[in-house]
Design goal:
single chain, mainly beta, 1% helix, globular
């Protein structure tokens, strides 16, 4: 059964103005375009129904100045894009259309909950022609992004991890419910999360001859990024385990009259910043009128900060020698007439270390869990300041520290940066004056990643070694008791192979058309920085938080701190096979795309876009006593989701008024045939 439609309206208006300030020298351009968005979604709760409205106000203001000189030019531009929202739409969690598991009160504040985002992006360039064969460029920029939550009540939330069924006879109706029942939807309050990025680049270009024509480029880049954040859950958040005993590391540590509960104190509060320096040199060498070679080398000096400089100023430092990235490429005109070209390239590519790693592992994020016996039915009173019941944690009076602050000893001193090798081969053939056939093969191979490999200290607290999995200190995994001790940790594997065949006809005789088909395989044991192996479906009522966004995602954003190597049980399936390899969760072996349009002589244009792709693999997960999801039957054992198809339609009509003035009407229809899986 399908959910009822949620009406959504967008209203946008705006304008622009531009022209010379000083004739032939100084020019300006400015534009402003605000947009209002409104969506209303109906909800059916356990005790009734009502609608929630969401209003968003987005603004875009852009300004640019350009100055023309005799031997160069200079420009400066600024883009301001603030957004505010009121009202938050929760995902449906029930089995029937538009249903949400829980009472109406669980979403009573969502109509007020919103956010405030203020973004400013400004940049400037100066281009100077030194000689007829050389020029110099300077570029600088500044980006500011501040996010804040609004309208979130400071009420501690509780969520059932097991059904209340065993005690329904003694519970008031308001407390009865199944797994996922909550008093309110859990929300982390971000007082502010501010990112600032300043950058500067300079490039030198020089053309000279010598065994052909060379275009030599070289440059230097600098970037400084800072992050300042304060987020928290008001009073923590509570998980209720009805009729359950608390078990840890195979030990039954007891329960209360009604089971047990945990109070999570999870917050991110601190500030950090770091610099990245980069150098590159590249030579585009036209050997003759048929062969062109591209040879280049790029390198970086990257510093990864901590949010606790009192413990350790910088967590990781990669020098220029650590990130040498050569690039090789070639293109050949087979017959010398431009009708057929073959090309190929190979290169090493290094990734910047995402701030999710230092935020989560180097001092910004703290996460303590308190376990208590559940002896009270006053669930709304449970919070960080009120934790009645017997202390069930292994260290009485303490908490389970999920982010141990002694991180200076948990970073591999010989850590290698993330890197990937990419190979590309292809050919283009011009069938006629207006159409081209393309064949393109890509092979991407992840050579190294950075992840946290888990261990337990003597007190039972979790610790994580920031390392290259399968190397050095992370060569073997600790045993929780169910797996052999000293087991080798599998090396990360993520390999993508794709063959694309395409045909494109440029616009002529009033129409154009483009079509391509891709056959691919995404294989390995590592889903990448955005962990598609860690999926939280909307029916659970929770999701993964995303930095500087109010909405949550079903996949964990990750950023070098995924669950792939946290526990030994994650390395196995239920049949004793170590290293669970297979098609990764975002693998779509077959993808076809077609896009085209026809322009009628009377000013009307019709266009369409079609996308069709294989479904993605579905895997059976089992949640262990360590609250970890294990692929018990390997990857993709349940087949695939249905084929995904999408058709969009564009209708447009232009009316000539006079001179250069025209009026254009457009109709865009997304998912024209209401296709769904």
């Amino acid at each position: 059964m399908q959910d009822a439609d949620s009406p959504r309206t967008h209203n946008e208006f705006g304008g622009s103005v531009g022209g010379p300030i000083v004739r032939d020298r100084l020019f300006f351009f400015g534009s402003y375009s605000p947009r209002s968005e409104r969506q209303t979604s109906p909800y059916n709760f356990d005790d009734g129904s009502y609608d929630i409205k969401r209003d968003i106000w987005r603004q875009q203001a852009f300004g640019k100045l350009t100055y023309a000189m005799r031997r160069g030019s200079a420009s400066w531009s600024t883009l301001w894009t603030p957004s505010t929202a009121k009202g938050t739409l929760a995902s449906y969690t029930g089995a029937t259309p538009n249903s949400y598991t829980g009472p109406k009160s669980s979403l009573q504040f969502e109509g007020q909950r919103g956010y405030d985002v203020n973004q400013l992006n400004t940049s400037g360039t100066v281009d100077l022609s030194l000689t007829n064969s050389s020029f110099l460029s300077f570029r600088g920029g500044y980006f500011h992004d501040r996010y804040s939550d609004t309208g979130i009540p400071e009420t501690t939330t509780y969520t059932y991890q097991t059904p209340s069924t065993p005690f329904d006879a003694v519970l008031p109706a308001s407390l009865r419910g199944g797994t996922g029942t909550a008093n309110l939807r859990r929300a982390q309050i971000t007082d502010f999360d501010t990112t600032k990025r300043a950058s500067f680049n300079t490039d030198y270009n020089h053309v000279f001859t010598g065994a052909g024509v060379h275009t030599l480029k070289g440059g230097y880049g600098f970037q400084r990024t800072t992050n300042d954040i304060d987020t928290f859950y008001p009073g923590g958040y509570v998980f209720i385990f009805w009729d359950r005993s608390f078990t840890f590391a195979g030990q039954n540590l007891g329960r209360g009259t009604y089971g047990y509960y945990e109070v999570n104190d999870r917050r991110i509060t601190s500030r950090a910043g770091s610099n990245i320096h980069s150098l590159y040199v590249q030579d585009q060498w036209s050997v003759n009128n048929r062969l062109t070679l591209d040879v280049g080398l790029r390198t970086e000096n990257e510093v990864v900060p901590t949010f606790r400089p009192d413990i350790l100023k910088n967590a990781i430092e990669f020098g220029f020698a650590d990130k040498l990235a050569p690039r090789l490429g070639a293109a050949y005109d087979v017959w010398g007439d431009g009708r057929m070209k073959v090309f190929g390239s190979w290169g090493l590519y290094y990734d910047w270390t995402k701030y999710e790693l230092p935020r989560g592992s180097f001092g910004a994020e703290t996460w303590c869990i308190y376990y208590r016996g559940l002896d009270t039915l006053d669930l709304g009173s449970l919070n960080l300041d009120n934790r009645p019941g017997r202390d069930l944690w292994v260290n009485q009076g303490g908490c389970r520290d999920r982010r141990v602050p002694s991180f200076q000893d948990e970073i591999d001193p010989d850590l290698e940066p993330m890197r990937q090798a990419s190979t590309s081969l292809g050919a283009e053939y011009q069938l006629a004056n207006n159409s081209v056939v393309t064949v393109h093969y890509i092979h991407n191979d992840l050579l190294e990643t950075i992840e946290d490999v888990g261990f337990l200290n003597a007190q039972g607290d979790e610790g994580y070694l920031i390392s290259n999995p399968g190397k050095r200190q992370a060569a073997t995994q600790f045993s929780t008791g169910a797996t052999p001790p000293g087991q080798p940790i599998p090396r990360p594997k993520r390999v993508y192979d794709a063959l694309e065949v395409g045909w494109s006809r440029r616009f002529s005789d009033n129409w154009f058309l483009s079509a391509n088909y891709t056959l691919s395989r995404l294989y390995g044991n590592y889903s990448g920085l955005a962990s598609s192996d860690e999926i939280t479906t909307p029916t659970t009522g929770v999701g993964s938080t995303t930095a500087q966004q109010q909405s949550v995602t079903i996949a964990r954003p990750g950023g070098n701190v995924n669950r792939a190597w946290d526990l030994d049980e994650l390395l196995y399936d239920a049949h004793g096979n170590r290293d669970v390899l297979g098609r990764l969760a975002t693998d779509r072996p077959h993808v076809a795309k077609v896009y085209g349009a026809y322009a009628f002589p009377f000013g009307t244009q019709i266009g369409a876009f079609f996308y069709g792709a294989s479904g993605t693999p579905i895997t059976t997960y089992v949640n262990t006593i360590n609250q970890t999801e294990v692929m018990v039957n390997g990857r993709g054992d349940m087949g695939r989701t249905p084929v995904l198809t999408l058709t969009n339609l564009l209708l447009a009509h232009e009316i000539d008024l006079n001179g250069a003035r025209r009026v254009r009407f457009e109709l865009n229809v997304n998912n024209l045939f209401n296709q769904k899986t």
